[in-house]
C-alpha cells in the first residue's frame, strides 16, 4: 500500500516513474529511484529557496510596513503641529487686525483732534494778528501824535471853564481827604460787605430750617409707614428679629429728637440725615419685597389661570367689588326688614307670643280643671254620703227621741204617784216630750 | 399806538432823562431838549462842534455833550440855561467822556487811554487816574454809585482799582489773575466784581468788594471764550455768553455752573417759536422762548406778522468767516428780566442791537438796525 501511494505521488510530481507494474522484476530500478531522489532533492531545494526568498520578501515588506507606519505617525504629528500653528497664526492675525482697527480709530480721532486744534490755533492766530494790527495802528497813531506834539509849538493845556461851581448832588460840603475819611471809607466798605453776608446768611438759615423741617416730616412719614407695615407683617418676617430689636432701639433714640432745639448743631443734622437714610433704605427694601411678593403672586396666578396677571388681578378686584356690593345690599335689606318689623308689626309678635303663652295657660288650666273636677266629684260623693248619713241620722234621732219620749213617759209615769193614766199622758207628754225631743233633736242637729 | 412826527437826530443820540420828563436829541451840533409829554422844545443849546456823545446826569439836571474830534466837553444845565461849562482836554485828546454816578463829576478818557481825568463841577479839584486799560469794558460804577472799578494795565500786568466815588479815594488796588483783562462788571448789590478775560481764554474771576478773589470759573480751554456777561438783578446769578453758542449761569453761593442753555440750529425743546413771516422770500425767524430771541433784519416797509411755527424749527445759520477776527458767532447779548425769572439771549449774527426788558418783567424790546420789536410774555405760557 505505502509503495503504491508514494508511486502515485511521485508521478503526480511529474517525475518519471520509478516502477511500474509492468516491470518484470519486483525490484526497484536503482537509477530511476536515484533519479527520482535527485529530482526530489532538487524539488526540495527549490522549494527551500523559494521559501527563503519568500521569507526575505516578507521580512522586507514587514520592515517596509513598519517604516511606512512610522512615517505615517510622524506625518500625522507634523500635521497636527502645523494645524495648531495655523490656528495660532490665524488668531494672531485676527488680533493684529483688531489692533489695526483700533489704531485706525485712534488715528482718526487724533486726526480730528488735530484738525480741531488746528482750527483753534488758526482762530487764535487770526485774533492775535487782529489785535496786533490794532495795537500797531494805535502805536502808529501815538507816534504820529507824539511827533505832532513835539513839533507843535502851541500846546493847548487842559482847562475847565465853568461859569460857577455848582453844589454837590447830596447838598453836603466836600471834605478834605484825611486819614479819618479813609478809615471811614474802609469802614463803609466792610459794612456793605458784612450786611450782604448777613442777608445771605439769613436767607440760608431760613432755607436750612425749612429743609430740615421737610426732612423731619419725611422721616416721620416714613417711620409711620414702616410701622404700619411692620404690624401687618410681623408673622412673615421672623428673620428680621435682630433688626427689629435694633429698629426699636433706634426709634427710641429718634423720638428724643426735638426739631426746635437741635436745629443748629452739626451733630443733630448728621443724626437727622443718617436717620433719613436709614428709613429710606428700609422703605426701599420693603417696597422691593412687596414688589417681589406681588410678582410671585402674579406668577402663581398666571400659572394657574393662564391669563395675564394684570387681567386676573383686575378680575379679582371686580369680583371682590361685586361681592362687596352684594353684601352691602344684603345688609341694607336686612336692616330695612328689621326696622320695618320693629316699627309696624309689633302686635303680630305679641299675639304670637301670647299664643304661645295661651297654650301654656290652657294646658295648665286643663290640668287644674281636671284636678278640680276630680275634687268636685269627690266632694259630691261625700256630700251625698253626708246627706244620706244626715237623713239616717235624723231618722235615727227621731226614733231615738220617740224612744226617749216613751222612756221618759214611762219614767214619768213610773215616777209619778199615779201610774195608770198613761194613755192620756201619752198624748200630752208626747206632745211635751215631742217638743222636748224636738228641742233636743234640733239642738243635736244644730250641734251637727 | 400813535406815532408823533419824526424828529431829526444824528448819531443815534436821543435819550430820555432819568426822571422821564425830558427828551434830549442831538442834531449835528445842536442839543434839543423837549418835554416828553408834549414834545415841545424847551431848550436849545449849541455846541462848538458836532456832538459825538451825549449823556444825562443822574439827577436829570445836566447834560454832557462830548465832541471827541475837538477834545471838548460841554455841560448844559436845564434849570439855568445860562449856565455853561466847557472842558477842554487840550492836546491830549479825548476818547470817551461820561458822568459819575453823583452827577457832579465828569470822567474823560484821553486819547490812547493815557489817563482818565476826573473833573469836578463842585470844586476846583481835578483827579488823574493813570494807566487805564483800553478794553471792552474797563470802567464800571456800582449800582448805588458808591464805588467805581477801573481796569488798569501796568508793566504788562492787569490791575483793578476800586475808587470811592465820594472823593475819588483809592480804596483797593489789586492785581488780577488775567492775561488780558477784557471787562469788569459790578453785581447789582455792589459786593462782587466780575472780571473776565479776553476772548482768547475762557476765564471769569469773581472778586469781592475788598479785593479778595472769591472764585474763578473756566468752562473750557483753548477755544474762543466769553463774549457777553450779565448779572441778574437780584445778584443771585451771573450769566455768561460765550463763543460756543452757549449761555452758562453761575450761582452766587458756590460760583459754580447751575444751568447751561444752548442755541442749537434746530430748535426742538422750547414751548413756542414765533416766526416772522414776510413777503420777501428771505425768511427771518423770531422765537420767543426761555432760551432764544433773535430777530433778523428786514426792510422797514415790508409788512410782517408773527406766526407760531411748528417745532422743530430750523434757524438759518450763517457760518462766519473763519479767517476774520471777532467772528459773528456766539452769544453776544444777554438780558435778565427784572424779576430774574427770564433771560433773553441773542446768538449768532442776527441784527439785533440791543435787548431790554421792561421793568415789570413781562415784556421785551428788541431793537435792530431798522426795526424794533416788542415781545410780550404771556404769563400762562411761560410760567417755568
TrEMBL record, chain A:
Biased composition (Acidic residues): 248-257
Region (Disordered): 232-259
Pfam families: ADIP
Principal place of residence: other
The family this protein is said to belong to: Belongs to the ADIP family.
GO biological process: one example: intraciliary transport involved in cilium assembly
Coiled-coil residue windows: 65-159
Family matches, as InterPro entries: Adhesion_Centrosome_assoc, Afadin/alpha-actinin-bd
Transmembrane intervals: none
Listed GO CC annotations: adherens junction; centriolar satellite; ciliary basal body
Protein location: Cell junction, Adherens junction; Cytoplasm, Cytoskeleton, Microtubule organizing center, Centrosome, Centriolar satellite
Protein name: Synovial sarcoma, X breakpoint 2 interacting protein b
PANTHER family linked to this entry: AFADIN- AND ALPHA-ACTININ-BINDING PROTEIN
Record's keyword terms, sorted: Cell adhesion, Cell junction, Coiled coil, Cytoplasm, Cytoskeleton
UniProtKB/TrEMBL annotation, chain B:
Superkingdom as given in the UniProt entry: Eukaryota
Organism of origin: Oryzias sinensis
GO cellular component: microtubule organizing center; MWP complex
One Pfam family, short name: WD40
SUPFAM superfamilies membership: WD40 repeat-like
Protein name: WD repeat containing, antisense to TP73
Coiled coil: none
Matching InterPro entries: Centrosome-WD_assoc, WD40/YVTN_repeat-like_dom_sf, WD40_repeat_dom_sf, WD40_rpt
Amino acid at each position: 500500500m505505502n509503495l503504491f501511494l508514494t508511486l502515485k505521488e511521485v508521478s503526480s510530481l511529474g517525475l518519471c516513474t520509478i516502477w511500474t507494474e509492468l516491470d518484470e522484476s519486483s525490484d526497484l530500478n536503482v537509477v530511476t529511484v536515484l533519479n527520482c531522489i535527485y529530482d526530489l532533492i532538487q524539488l526540495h531545494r527549490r522549494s527551500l529557496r523559494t521559501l527563503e526568498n519568500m521569507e526575505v520578501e516578507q521580512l522586507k515588506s514587514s520592515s517596509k510596513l513598519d517604516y511606512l507606519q512610522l512615517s505615517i505617525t510622524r506625518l500625522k504629528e507634523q500635521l497636527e503641529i502645523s494645524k495648531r500653528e495655523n490656528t495660532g497664526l490665524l488668531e494672531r492675525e485676527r488680533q493684529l487686525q483688531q489692533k489695526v482697527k483700533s489704531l485706525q480709530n485712534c488715528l482718526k480721532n487724533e486726526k480730528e483732534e488735530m484738525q480741531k486744534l488746528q482750527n483753534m490755533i488758526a482762530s487764535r492766530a487770526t485774533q492775535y494778528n487782529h489785535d496786533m494790527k490794532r495795537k500797531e495802528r494805535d502805536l502808529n497813531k501815538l507816534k504820529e501824535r507824539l511827533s505832532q506834539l513835539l513839533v507843535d509849538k502851541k500846546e493847548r493845556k487842559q482847562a475847565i471853564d465853568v461859569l460857577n461851581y455848582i453844589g454837590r448832588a447830596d447838598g453836603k460840603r466836600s471834605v478834605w481827604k484825611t486819614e479819618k475819611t479813609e478809615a471811614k471809607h474802609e469802614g463803609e466798605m466792610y459794612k456793605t460787605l458784612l450786611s450782604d453776608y448777613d442777608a445771605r446768611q439769613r436767607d440760608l438759615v431760613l432755607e436750612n430750617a425749612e429743609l430740615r423741617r421737610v426732612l423731619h416730616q419725611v422721616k416721620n412719614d416714613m417711620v409711620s409707614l414702616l410701622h404700619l407695615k411692620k404690624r401687618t407683617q410681623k408673622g412673615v418676617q421672623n428673620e428680621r428679629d435682630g433688626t427689629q430689636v435694633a429698629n426699636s432701639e433706634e426709634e427710641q433714640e429718634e423720638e428724643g429728637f426735638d426739631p426746635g432745639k437741635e436745629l443748629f448743631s452739626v451733630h443733630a443734622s448728621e443724626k437727622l440725615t443718617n436717620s433719613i437714610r436709614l428709613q429710606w433704605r428700609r422703605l426701599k427694601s420693603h417696597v422691593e419685597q412687596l414688589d417681589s411678593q406681588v410678582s410671585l403672586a402674579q406668577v402663581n396666578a398666571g400659572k394657574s389661570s393662564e391669563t395675564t396677571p394684570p387681567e386676573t388681578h383686575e378680575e379679582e378686584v371686580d369680583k371682590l367689588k361685586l361681592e362687596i356690593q352684594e353684601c352691602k345690599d344684603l345688609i341694607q335689606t336686612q336692616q330695612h326688614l328689621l326696622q320695618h318689623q320693629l316699627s309696624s308689626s309689633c302686635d303680630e309678635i305679641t299675639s304670637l307670643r301670647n299664643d304661645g303663652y295661651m297654650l301654656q295657660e290652657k294646658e295648665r288650666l286643663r290640668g287644674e280643671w281636671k284636678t278640680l273636677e276630680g275634687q268636685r266629684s269627690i266632694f259630691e260623693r261625700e256630700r251625698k254620703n253626708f246627706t244620706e248619713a244626715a237623713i239616717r241620722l235624723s231618722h235615727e234621732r227621731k226614733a231615738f227621741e220617740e224612744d226617749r219620749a216613751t222612756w221618759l213617759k214611762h219614767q214619768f209615769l213610773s215616777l209619778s204617784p199615779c201610774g195608770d193614766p198613761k194613755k192620756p199622758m201619752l198624748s200630752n207628754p208626747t206632745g211635751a216630750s215631742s217638743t222636748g225631743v224636738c228641742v233636743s233633736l234640733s239642738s243635736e242637729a244644730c250641734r251637727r | 399806538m400813535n406815532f408823533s412826527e419824526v424828529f431829526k437826530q444824528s448819531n443815534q443820540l436821543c435819550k430820555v432823562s432819568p426822571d422821564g420828563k425830558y427828551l434830549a436829541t442831538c442834531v449835528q451840533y445842536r442839543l434839543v431838549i423837549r418835554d416828553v409829554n408834549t414834545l415841545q422844545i424847551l431848550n436849545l443849546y449849541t455846541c462848538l462842534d458836532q456832538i459825538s456823545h451825549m449823556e444825562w446826569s443822574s439827577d436829570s439836571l445836566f447834560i454832557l455833550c462830548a465832541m471827541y474830534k475837538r477834545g471838548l466837553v460841554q455841560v448844559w444845565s436845564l434849570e439855568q440855561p445860562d449856565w455853561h461849562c466847557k472842558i477842554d482836554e487840550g492836546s491830549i485828546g479825548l476818547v470817551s467822556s461820561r458822568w459819575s454816578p453823583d452827577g457832579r463829576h465828569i470822567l474823560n478818557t484821553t486819547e490812547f487811554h493815557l489817563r482818565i481825568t476826573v473833573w469836578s463841577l463842585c470844586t476846583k479839584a481835578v483827579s488823574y487816574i493813570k494807566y487805564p486799560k483800553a478794553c471792552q469794558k474797563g470802567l464800571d460804577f456800582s449800582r448805588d454809585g458808591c464805588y467805581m472799578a477801573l481796569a488798569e494795565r501796568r508793566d504788562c500786568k492787569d490791575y483793578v482799582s476800586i475808587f470811592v466815588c465820594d472823593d475819588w479815594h483809592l480804596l483797593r488796588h489789586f492785581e488780577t489773575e488775567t492775561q488780558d483783562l477784557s471787562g469788569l462788571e459790578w453785581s447789582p448789590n455792589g459786593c462782587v466784581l466780575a472780571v473776565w478775560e479776553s476772548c482768547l481764554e475762557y476765564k471769569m474771576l469773581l472778586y469781592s468788594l475788598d479785593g479778595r478773589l472769591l472764585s474763578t470759573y473756566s468752562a473750557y480751554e483753548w477755544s474762543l471764550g466769553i463774549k457777553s456777561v450779565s448779572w441778574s438783578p437780584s445778584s443771585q446769578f451771573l450769566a455768561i455768553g460765550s463763543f460756543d453758542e452757549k449761555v452758562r449761569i453761575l450761582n452766587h453761593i458756590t460760583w459754580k455752573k447751575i444751568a447751561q442753555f444752548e442755541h442749537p440750529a434746530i430748535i426742538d425743546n422750547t414751548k413756542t417759536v414765533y416766526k416772522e413771516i414776510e413777503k420777501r422770500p428771505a425768511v427771518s425767524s423770531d422765537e420767543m422762548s426761555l432760551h432764544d430771541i433773535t430777530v433778523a433784519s428786514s426792510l422797514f416797509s415790508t409788512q410782517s406778522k408773527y406766526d407760531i411755527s411748528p417745532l422743530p424749527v430750523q434757524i438759518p445759520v450763517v457760518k462766519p468767516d473763519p479767517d476774520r477776527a471777532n467772528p459773528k458767532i456766539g452769544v453776544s447779548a444777554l438780558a435778565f428780566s427784572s424779576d430774574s425769572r427770564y433771560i433773553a439771549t441773542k446768538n449768532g449774527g442776527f441784527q439785533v442791537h440791543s435787548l431790554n426788558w421792561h421793568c415789570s418783567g413781562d415784556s421785551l424790546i428788541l431793537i435792530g438796525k431798522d426795526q424794533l420789536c416788542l415781545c410780550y410774555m404771556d404769563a400762562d405760557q411761560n410760567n417755568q
